[in-house]
């Protein structure tokens, strides 16, 4: 889609790259880190100051109490956190529950590690967590992957959903690997709930996060995880083996920014994206591509049946040709044909890009 979009000079809302500018506080930290000569490998689990800053943030924003010395690992993006976690804690052939729609890297990373994904869809219309369906697949599974706020679903799981899942994890002795990278992208007063804070869950949860999205620094590769020491230690060893460390200057700059930015920054981030969501969803609605209005993250699934195609792939191509707007076919997020009437758009874009996309949709004859 990206290649074809480029050929046609369209607006690419396909890839999940946020192109809003990083906060000045983040950029300001890089040059001093270079000048200070932070050129060497760091401790495998990250520099002290960053782990301490993360421990503070986890306590303040998530309600997670993690010991910065033994329970936090700085990783190469949250992607690196996931790779290190599944390779450290799971064995080839283990069954891992993956909720659909899923984030493609979760599925493919599981597959490359020789794990067996067990697909459980969210409820079809509401995209609610279908605990009975998960229960039916839980026997014999080792782990479940959770992503809230969700890409591409836009779901922010409620306390009741999270509690039901926590109960299930404990009854079936499941490890919970939770990807919370969009934790600050919350709309309409939805609250982010970290699974690790539910009674009995800290011991069996790996909480993954990162600053790719929050600070718009996808290429800096800055992520982390929090987990009890008995899980964090083996994950840290695998992280060391695969990645050695996260780029040292990035660690310093991000530590600076976490220390400097206060709650206003995170509130504004959510407010800005809610505005983008509202404007873009209105444009989709007007063009007949009915959106499933997201509660969080910066993606929206839109119903593409108005385009009259039999597959999401064909619909996405037709939309690109008729309107000059690229999205990702929904078939990328389900293992069966459940995604065929969706196209996913990313609205984590600068105003000029989003305005152009909305103008294209408005002018197009779909
Ligand atoms: C759900 C989810 N997890 C992880 C990532 C990647 O994060 P990182 O850049 O920290 O590796 C993305 C990026 O699109 C994502 O959507």
Automatic annotation (TrEMBL):
Domain of life: Bacteria
UniProt keyword list: Aminotransferase, Pyridoxal phosphate, Transferase
Catalytic EC class: transferase
This protein's GO CC annotations: cytoplasm
PANTHER family: FI04487P
Pfam families: Aminotran_1_2
Names of required cofactors: pyridoxal 5'-phosphate
EC annotation from Swiss-Prot or TrEMBL: 2.6.1.-
Stored CDD domains: AAT_like (cd00609)
Domain Aminotransferase class I/classII large: 11-360
GO MF: kynurenine-oxoglutarate transaminase activity; pyridoxal phosphate binding
Matches recorded under InterPro entries: Aminotransferase_I/II_large, Kynurenine-oxoglutarate_AT, NHTrfase_class1_PyrdxlP-BS, PyrdxlP-dep_Trfase, PyrdxlP-dep_Trfase_major, PyrdxlP-dep_Trfase_small
Family, as annotated: Belongs to the class-I pyridoxal-phosphate-dependent aminotransferase family.
Name of the protein described by the UniProt record: Aminotransferase
